[in-house]
Amino acid sequence: MKPRKFKKKVEIRQRILAAFSAVLFFSFALTWIIFSVALNLLRPIADYYPVYEQGFFGRPAVVLFGSIGIMFVVAVVVTYFLAKSFTRPIEKLRKFALGIGPGNFAPNDFEFNEKELCDLNAALNASAKQLGVYDSEQKTFFQNASHELRTPLMSIKCYAEGISFGLMDPKQASETILQETDKLSELVADLLYISKIDNIATAYNATDVDLASIIRDCAGRQQAMADKGQIKFTFNFDDDAMPHKCVHELISRAVDNLISNALRYAASEITLSCHKKAGHVEISVSDDGNGIDPEILPHVFERFYKGNGGNTGIGLSIVKSIAEQHGGHVTAINANKGGAVFTVALPIT
User: Fold this and answer.
1) Which residue of 122, 209, 215, 315 has the smallest Cβ count within 10 Å?
2) Whole-angstrom distance, CA of residue 287 vs CA of residue 335
3) Are the C-beta atoms of residues 162 and 173 closer than 8 Å to each other?
């Protein structure tokens, strides 16, 4: 139904209610005037003929007041049902909104004649759907997180018991426990970070930052790891300074994760690029390794999905979340010359 038709129906209902109220008011007023005039005109007759007091002043009064009472009851009933016709759709939407809180995210199939109510219902359905997706993702997140946390904890427990019962060399077992503890600490830090990013109540303030400087700082923090693997960083920027409005903390974490991922697969070089394109800025991290298995490529940004040589399966999903927080996206491809290329595209606002 077209919006004009919706509006017309609402106007008709409002006019009917207004007209009925006006007619009712004037009917009461007119009845009272006529009754008062009749009493004043015929009161002298009643003084001389007492029978008229019972015949006119008794029965007509009962009839008139009875009629007024009936009209009042009818007015109340009609007004009630007209009012309910307005409030019933709002009451349905109120109950639906209250049901979202306890976790009923299933969209409704309400149909309304008024465009405004249709728009409100569509907005509530969209919100319920979004909250349902968020709730489902959170449940999956905690299930996967508990599984990932259990693995290093079990390993630590086994090696600790081995030391306790004298079944393992204490030095070797201690080294394994320390490695698993480091892995556990890193996993917990990643879990806390991604939970913070995905929190719908978390607000971030975007500021003007220098992307080129951020990329260089991220590379500097991981220079020791690069030197250990005899890997060099190559920078490829449009300009020495690449100003862009974004959240410094999040972009730094995204670049850190991409560099950390590239260090695990690069053979000798990692290229860090930043270029302005039409309507957006691209940050790319590419390595000269063997590239990504085509079967794994579609899943690299899924949470807890670990490819060959992967660590926790969270790092790249954090990059994806950060890019989406900025209204952008991230892609992964295999370069023609070999190696993988990860690109974060951020819109220019």
Assistant:
1) 122
2) 9
3) yes
Average of per-residue pLDDT across 304-311:
66
Place of tokens 């979004």: 130
What's the pLDDT at 186?
76
Residue 347, pLDDT score: 92
Place of tokens 């996993």: 187
- Beta carbons of 340 and 316 less than 8 angstroms apart: no
pTM for this model (two decimals): 0.58
Task: Give how far the C-alpha of residue 336 lies from the chain's centroid of Cα atoms, to the nearest Å.
Answer: 39
**Per this entry, what is the length of the chain?**
349
Ramachandran category for residue 14: left, alpha or beta (phi over 0 → left; psi -120 to 50 → alpha) = alpha
Crossing angle of helices 315-325 and 248-263, in 10° steps, is 150
- Distance separating alpha carbons of residues 29 and 17, to the nearest angstrom: 18
Provide the 8-state DSSP code for 267: S
Can you tell me the distance from the alpha carbon of 219 to that of 260, in angstroms, rounded to the nearest whole number? 9
Q: What is the 8-class DSSP label of residue 101?
A: T
SS3 51: helix
CA distance 307 to 304: 10
The residues that bridge with 333 in the sheet, in sequence order, are: 341
